[in-house]
Every structure is written in structure tokens, then in C-alpha cells.
């Protein structure tokens, strides 16, 4: 159970969902800096207690007032995982499809370059991810904390680069 949960949470909670970071767009005509394809830099990321995913690609597209997040990843155990969600970054819960680790996510914009994501299963918060976009818009850092089902503290830092 631990390996499966770690695979889902390691991938999901350490940044893939976290890419719903609420970046404000100063000019309504300007594209959202998160829209595009992001790849996990496994070598520059840390997953405690682990294991780290082998890879992750996230495609973010504009969806109404928010973003649609599509994740294609390979867990630390080598198993593929595809899942998605859409969120308006308004702090409200929205459904997640394809990921058994949780069933809803809420995203709140903190500043133009920072956001907070809360992952839930059955209404209970599992973990919180703090997201930060670099000034040049090329690196997204996601720090996820929480407790795994074994009662162990989780502290993951994932770095994504824009492609």
C-alpha cells in the first residue's frame, strides 16, 4: 500500500497538480504564463520519504476563467499514470479524474507568482502544495507537505521547467 500511495502522492502532490498555481495576468490580453508544457526535473527535485517519480509531463491549457491540467507521468515504481482536473483558482473544490490518491483539489491564488493547492480525499485534506513561479517564467517550484497513510511526514520539493 505504501509504494502505491507514495507513487500517486509523489507524482500528484509534489507539483503536478500544483501547476494550477494562480498566476495573475496583469493584462487581459496577455497569455497566462502557466499555459504550455512543463517537465519535471527529477535531478533537481527531492521527495521525502520517496520514491521520486521517474518522469512527469504536464500540459496546461486555458479553460474559461481557469486552467485545465493534464498529467502524464511514470511513478517511482515504473507504472504510468494519466489524470486531469480543471480549476478556476478561486479556492473552491473541483473534481480530479484518473488519480486514486484524491478526488478533489482546490487552488487559491496568493500573489501574481504564488499559489496554494489543497488535495482532498473524501472531503479530508491530504496535503498542501505551495507553488512559486520564477521571475523569468521558466521554472515552477512546488513544495508539498502532509502526512502519508503510514503517518510519516511528507516533504517534497519538485522543480518543473517550461518547454
Provide an overview of this structure.
The protein is mainly beta and 163 residues long. It has one helix at residues 2-16; strands at residues 36-40, 46-48, 55-63, 66-74, 80-87, 94-97, 104-111, 114-121, 124-133, 139-147, 153-162. The protein has one domain (2-162): Lipocalin. β4 and β5 form a beta hairpin. The longest helix has 15 residues, at 2-16.
Rg over CA atoms, rounded to whole Å, is 14 Å
Placed side by side, the strands forming the largest sheet appear as 1-3-4-5-6-7-8-9-10-11
CATH architecture: Beta Barrel
Whole-number count of domains: 1
In round numbers, the mean pLDDT is: 83
Question: Pairing-aware structural class of the strands and helices?
Answer: mainly beta
Strand runs, count = 11
Order of helices and strands: HEEEEEEEEEEE
How many angstroms does the end-to-end distance come to? 34 Å
CATH fold topology? Lipocalin
Shape: globular
Largest sheet: 10 strands, antiparallel, barrel
CATH class category name: Mainly Beta
* Proportion in helices: under 10%
What is the overall number of helices? 1
The proportion of strand residues reads over 45%
Summarize this, please?
The chain has 163 residues and is mostly beta strands. Helix content is 9%, strand content 51%. The protein has a ten-stranded antiparallel β-barrel.
Write a concise keyword list for the protein shown above.
163 residues; mainly beta; Lipocalin; ten-stranded antiparallel barrel; 1 helix; 11 strands; 51% strand
What's the SSE blueprint?
Blueprint: H1 2-16, E1 36-40, E2 46-48, E3 55-63, E4 66-74, E5 80-87, E6 94-97, E7 104-111, E8 114-121, E9 124-133, E10 139-147, E11 153-162
Antiparallel strand pairs: 1-3, 1-11, 2-11, 3-4, 4-5, 5-6, 6-7, 7-8, 8-9, 9-10, 10-11
